[in-house]
Amino acid sequence: xxxxxxxxxxxxxxxxxxxxxxxxxxxxxxxxxxxxxxxxxxxxxxxxxxxxxxxxxxxxxxxxxxxxxxxxxxxxxxxxxxxxxxxxxxxxxxxxxxxxxxxxxxxxxxxxxxxxxxxxxxxxxxxxxxxxxxxxxxxxxxxxxxxxxxxxxxxxxxxxxxxxxxxxxxxxxxxxxxxxxxxxxxxxxxxxxxxxxxxxxxxxxxxxxxxxxxxxxxxxxxxxxxxxxxxxxxxxxxxxxxxxxxxxxxxxxxxxxxxxxxxxxxxxxxxxxxxxxxxxxxxxxxxxxxxxxxxxxxxxxxxxxxxxxxxxxxxxxxxxxxxxxxxxxxxxxxxxxxxxxxxxxxxxxxxxxxxxxxxxxx
Length: 362
Fold this sequence. Notes:
Layout: E1 2-4, E2 24-28, E3 35-46, E4 51-60, E5 66-75, E6 89-95, E7 101-109, E8 127-136, E9 143-155, E10 158-166, E11 168-178, E12 181-195, E13 201-215, E14 225-232, E15 237-241, E16 249-250, E17 253-259, H1 279-282, E18 284-289, E19 297-303, E20 309-315, E21 320-327, E22 331-335, E23 342-350, E24 353-361
Antiparallel strand pairs: 1-4, 2-5, 3-4, 5-6, 7-8, 7-17, 8-9, 9-10, 10-12, 11-12, 12-13, 13-14, 14-15, 14-16, 18-19, 19-22, 20-21, 20-23, 23-24
């Protein structure tokens, strides 16, 4: 992991020229449930670049494939302080080379176009760190995974650090865009939003995290992209979104990997299918064409179950806009002709199954 120590005398951080590695302590918070432990073995500080690096060993639990560890930074030299502009939290995602899962880690520098109650101009220039993993279990029936993100914003002259975590993977759809790129849409439920700045207090709970990621090949071959939002559906609250227009943004640094059965991200599957490992998803699916659109959406619903389905369309505040009942499987429904420009969410329900996706009306 790497921390960047910046500033000069009188700025957000004290003069850094005389600091050494011994002035810092690197630790970690409770590890990802997929990890049995973290051993931090060393650190080094470069006073010319202001970079503090550390080495760590992460032990994955039996039969798991990925974990995201939150590392912390503390300064134990009483002559110095970590100012508001210095970040003391970093997320590192570790993944093994196996097929059939989606994982990623890194950060984006927020701009003023972030959305929600904890977005906007106050986030401009501050980091948003993320780490996640999601995968179907061996039976192909249940999802497993974890989501962890830390973003920062200034409030009342103080930089607040917020964290959103969840271990309840809900939905996953993988689409092959080209021979070298993949898209994954997935959701986590039961998320918690905490303010780590002072009290570590919980701001909101039972949140839904909707995520869209693009794996555009191996590092150096293309820039990966991400969009996610944190929504409290029952209370009609959007707490945070990486972009208020609902569109993915480029990673500032990091990597997203979409591994499919028999192929690595950025390679075409040998059997020509989009994702042979996610058979459960392929039998219950929702697509919108075109999306975005200036007129209407054609919603394609597919399922191997003959039971009737329900379609619900909600606005960005979670208010119900349109409901279509008794939808037959493997049909196309047209909606959105009269919708105003904006972001909407459509939910497909069949029995205990649910599938959600975002719609953008231009």
